[in-house]
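User: Here's a structure from my thesis project, written as structure tokens. My advisor, Dr. K., wants to see whether a designed sequence matches the one we expressed. Can you design one independently, without my sequence as a hint?
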């Protein structure tokens, strides 16, 4: 309990303003708390006397904060005298006491509780930083031990706050503000952690600790570079995190003590998050990098008193990573708990005691997956050890992965020994084993028609005899043209039994594409299950076969096999970067091991599998051969059914389907239409699985297993899978770990193993790996590379082009395509991040973002499909406005368009090339109508490098951005002797609107000579 006397009112500091603002946002007080332990606690009177003496000594301990009408920011009230009484409540745990005393800070500036032999002191976070809290506890210890404190002749914190405010109004303050604005301009955004997920703010912490013997090495490193240990540690920590995200230039915010020498004994919140530009030179020595960093750090520190984040950060500037790092030496005498750390995404605390170095990492909950912080600390310790051993090494020579961790990575993601090539029969032999076990079971069901395993085998054998007579042998490619039917499965099996390889040809594909595939594959013959489209051009003298009764009347005996596991089983064509599709060659061993791996992964009995994909898509291999190897029934929807989610749902309900595979976006629609599903397992693949879908699946089908599969055609359908058995807590669903017979490698740009939690490119190996690309030896050599980590001669890795990070649990997190990552105006942008935010918006069913090349540079364009369209233009603008609140300016699309549906590839995936080719629906051209509009339009045309600009054309839709806006503003000032505040320009997005603003400012007499003073007043009004 505390008694107060009347208070005086003072303004607050910038640090206090930031904390109180965050506290208001959270709706709860933030505290700095310390725990002091005693062998035998002093008498209550002694403790109360000590507490009251330090409160009288430091004004900040007698300070409360309140909002005063007419003031935008709170003020601090300093009571001349308080009388504090110690709480002696018993039975409270430390956790309970900390929580209750924190809440009590809404009424009083300091709370003290005696818990058995421990004294808990709680102070408002706006009043105390870490160093102040430690100083406070040291003074209390001294007083409780009967000592005396020296006379206090330092400034009080209110004096510092007043000085800080006055500094901002002086010339030196304006110069400092300009320094920070210059520092921010053009900087790469802060480190984007590979696992950064949560947008919400959670003011709790989790911690992990790692003890090492690196203290002497760290001191030696700092001494060699003639730096303080703390500064060296700051660089190493920032550089390590930069390495995790593979950035060479970044802007970080380091928590630093803001005290001058005159304030060392003053209590208050002086510490601040100080932005520092970190430029890594990978080929320069560590010592040179350290010295360059020290120079930049000293520069930032020299201007720290002039830092006002609200002014220095424009709304369009990237916010630096809130990165905390602190270092101390000697034994810890008090336990300090600061909610300040919750402002930081990551806080590294290092304490050296003799030769022992304790590394403690604190982070916001849900920011990092379980186990990752320990892995990062191990990597950092390895990096630190290598750096201290030889500071003449370049940064790129410093290993981020220890030998032990590298071995774990190789083992955790390698299951190639679980299923070898020797274990795999020929692909069709898996079916033949099921024929012997279940001859009378239904093998295929299509629209009321069924065929048994025995009959399917008989017809496939008869076709095989005919194909042999046509000269089909090992590696001969046979085309199959037709839609979903029993006959197409007969054709595929017959080709395999004859020793050939099948090439599926979907009639829905463009004729030009089919003609190319037939010519490129040099097919031996073509099985036509329906009339060919007249525009398809066939190779000369190509034999065509129809499955007529006469063809299927020959011998039904199985032919002796002429194939080996290395021979081709099928060729699947996928999109190529040259504009022409490329054929992926998959052998019997590749396809067979992939199929056998399903039996090892999936435990739910396979009964009825619904295959939705086209036979020309590689997921059909999973549907056909997994089903037919298990004695289950393969259900094929009709051509009318397979694209209609309502009809698919009805088919699942009516036929009691147990398993099916679909694109996540299609399954989301099917899921809502299901009535009484008998599903045991749903597999999604082909695109990223949204968390929202996983949660909705769990809500509607809690007993049905959901599996997120991943794998390119080059890995024979799949290489990893993740069973979503618990509600996802992240913003992405993992793609899992290696399946049986597969090894996965995450490599950095130097083809070295990327450590746990570090972004890299995924490489795939194992017997499921395809032979390569048909007639593309150079392309095959560039994508299928020797495996440097394998002991088996000839082992290969396929380079996927997919960005992933490894999780400590032995699973992978999919981060997107390497080619979906681009730079605009120097900023690295991941299109998937923008798409994810759009996808979370209400009423948005699908979202996609593409980059266009314009005369003014790259331009982001977003497309959405809405669940309900009311006012298209208003909805487009509302979504853009929402993105502007969530993203920095450089990541906000210049244009957003609502579409009825997205263009799809023949395989049902989003066709990004077609999306990029869509014409943007802009405003009709309206020429300038007066001299002012003509002048402004000419300035825009020059800046945007366009032949003409209409008065209704949107600046951002034309490719404009903040940097161009700045140039245009300068041109306007030069030609019209009139300057508009930049914020007004962003509000006037067309020539017409900007002309109105110019006229308004002309009428008000605002010239270029007066604008600086006006903007300063505007900035002051915003504070």
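Assistant: Designed independently from the structure alone:
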């Amino acid at each position: 309990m505390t008694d107060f006397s009347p208070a005086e009112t003072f303004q607050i500091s910038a640090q206090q303003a930031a904390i109180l603002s965050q506290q208001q946002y959270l709706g709860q007080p933030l505290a700095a708390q310390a725990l002091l332990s005693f062998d035998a606690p002093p008498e209550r009177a002694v403790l109360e006397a000590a507490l009251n003496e330090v409160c009288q000594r430091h004004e900040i301990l007698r300070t409360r904060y309140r909002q005063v009408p007419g003031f935008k920011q709170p003020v601090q009230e300093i009571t001349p005298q308080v009388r504090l009484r110690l709480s002696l409540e018993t039975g409270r745990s430390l956790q309970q006491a900390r929580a209750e005393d924190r809440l009590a800070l809404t009424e009083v500036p300091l709370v003290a509780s005696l818990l058995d032999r421990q004294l808990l002191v709680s102070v408002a976070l706006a009043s105390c930083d870490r160093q102040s809290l430690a100083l406070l506890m040291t003074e209390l210890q001294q007083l409780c031990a009967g000592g005396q404190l020296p006379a206090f002749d330092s400034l009080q914190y209110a004096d510092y706050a007043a000085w800080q405010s006055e500094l901002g109004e002086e010339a030196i303050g304006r110069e400092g503000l300009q320094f920070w604005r210059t520092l921010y301009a053009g900087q790469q955004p802060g480190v984007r952690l590979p696992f950064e997920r949560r947008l919400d703010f959670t003011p709790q912490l989790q911690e992990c600790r790692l003890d090492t013997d690196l203290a002497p090495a760290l001191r030696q490193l700092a001494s060699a570079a003639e730096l303080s240990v703390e500064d060296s540690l700051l660089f190493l920590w920032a550089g390590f995190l930069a390495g995790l995200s593979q950035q060479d230039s970044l802007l970080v915010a380091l928590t630093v003590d803001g005290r001058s020498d005159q304030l060392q004994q003053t209590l208050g919140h002086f510490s601040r998050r100080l932005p520092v530009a970190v430029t890594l030179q990978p080929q320069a020595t560590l010592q040179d990098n350290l010295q360059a960093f020290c120079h930049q750090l000293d520069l930032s520190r020299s201007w720290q008193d002039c830092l006002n984040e609200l002014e220095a950060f424009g709304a369009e500037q990237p916010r630096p990573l809130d990165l905390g790092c602190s270092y101390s030496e000697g034994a810890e005498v008090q336990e300090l708990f600061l909610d300040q750390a919750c402002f930081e995404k990551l806080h590294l605390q290092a304490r050296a005691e003799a030769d022992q170095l304790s590394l403690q990492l604190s982070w916001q909950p849900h920011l990092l997956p379980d186990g990752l912080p320990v892995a990062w600390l191990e990597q950092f310790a390895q990096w630190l050890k290598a750096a201290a051993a030889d500071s003449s090494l370049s940064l790129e020579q410093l290993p981020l992965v220890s030998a032990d961790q590298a071995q774990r990575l190789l083992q955790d993601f390698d299951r190639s020994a679980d299923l070898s090539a020797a274990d795999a029969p020929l692909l069709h032999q898996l079916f033949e084993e099921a024929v012997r076990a279940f001859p009378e079971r239904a093998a295929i069901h299509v629209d009321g028609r069924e065929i048994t395993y025995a009959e399917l085998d008989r017809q496939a054998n008869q076709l095989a005899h005919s194909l042999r007579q046509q000269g089909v042998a090992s590696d001969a490619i046979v085309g199959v043209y037709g839609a979903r039917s029993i006959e197409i499965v007969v054709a595929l099996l017959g080709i395999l039994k004859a020793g050939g390889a099948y090439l599926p040809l979907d009639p829905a594909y463009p004729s030009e594409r089919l003609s190319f595939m037939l010519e490129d594959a040099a097919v031996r013959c073509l099985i036509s299950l329906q009339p060919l489209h007249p525009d398809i051009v066939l190779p000369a003298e190509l034999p065509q076969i129809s499955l007529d009764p006469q063809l299927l009347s020959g011998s039904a005996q199985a032919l002796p096999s002429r194939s080996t596991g290395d021979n081709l089983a099928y060729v699947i064509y996928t999109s190529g970067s040259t504009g022409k599709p490329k054929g992926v060659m998959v052998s019997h061993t590749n396809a067979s091991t992939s199929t056998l791996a399903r039996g090892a992964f999936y435990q739910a009995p396979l009964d009825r599998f619904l295959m939705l994909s086209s036979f020309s898509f590689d997921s059909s291999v999973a549907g056909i051969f997994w089903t037919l190897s298990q004695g289950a029934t393969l259900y094929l929807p009709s051509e009318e059914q397979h694209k209609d989610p309502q009809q698919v749902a009805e088919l699942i309900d009516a036929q009691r389907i147990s398993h099916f595979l679909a694109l996540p976006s299609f399954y989301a629609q099917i899921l809502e239409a299901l009535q009484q599903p008998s599903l045991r397992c749903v597999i999604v693949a082909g695109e990223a699985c949204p968390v929202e879908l996983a949660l909705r699946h769990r809500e509607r089908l809690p007993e049905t297993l959901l599996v997120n599969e991943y794998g390119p055609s080059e890995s024979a359908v799949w290489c990893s899978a993740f069973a979503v058995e618990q509600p996802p807590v992240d913003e992405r669903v993992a793609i899992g770990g290696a399946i049986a017979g597969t090894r996965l490698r995450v490599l950095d740009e130097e083809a070295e193993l990327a450590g746990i939690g570090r972004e890299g490119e995924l490489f795939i190996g194992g017997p499921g790996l395809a032979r390569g690309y048909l007639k593309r030896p150079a392309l095959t050599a560039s994508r299928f590379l020797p495996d440097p980590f394998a002991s088996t001669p000839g082992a290969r890795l396929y380079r996927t082009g997919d960005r992933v990070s490894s999780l400590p649990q032995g699973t992978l997190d999919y981060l997107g395509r390497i080619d979906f990552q681009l730079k605009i105006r120097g900023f690295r942008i991941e299109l998937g991040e923008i798409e994810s935010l759009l996808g979370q918006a209400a009423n948005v069913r699908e979202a996609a973002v593409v980059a266009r090349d314009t005369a003014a540079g790259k331009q982001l364009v977003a497309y959405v499909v809405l669940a309900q369209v009311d006012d298209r233009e208003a909805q487009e603008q509302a979504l853009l406005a929402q993105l502007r609140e969530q993203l920095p300016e450089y990541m906000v699309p210049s244009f957003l368009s609502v579409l009825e549906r997205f263009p799809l590839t023949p395989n049902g995936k989003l066709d990004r090339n077609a999306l990029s080719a869509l014409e943007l629906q802009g405003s009709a051209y309206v020429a300038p109508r007066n001299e002012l509009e003509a002048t402004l339009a000419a300035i825009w045309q020059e800046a945007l490098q366009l032949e003409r600009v209409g008065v209704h054309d949107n600046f951002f839709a034309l490719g404009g951005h903040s940097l161009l806006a700045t140039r245009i503003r300068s041109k306007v000032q030069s030609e019209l002797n009139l300057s508009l505040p930049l914020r007004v320009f962003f509000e006037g997005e067309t020539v017409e609107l900007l002309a109105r603003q110019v006229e308004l400012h002309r009428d008000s007499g605002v010239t270029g000579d007066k604008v600086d003073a006006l903007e300063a007043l505007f900035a002051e009004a915003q504070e």
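When you compare it with your expressed construct, this may help: Residues 372-389 form the longest helix (18 residues).
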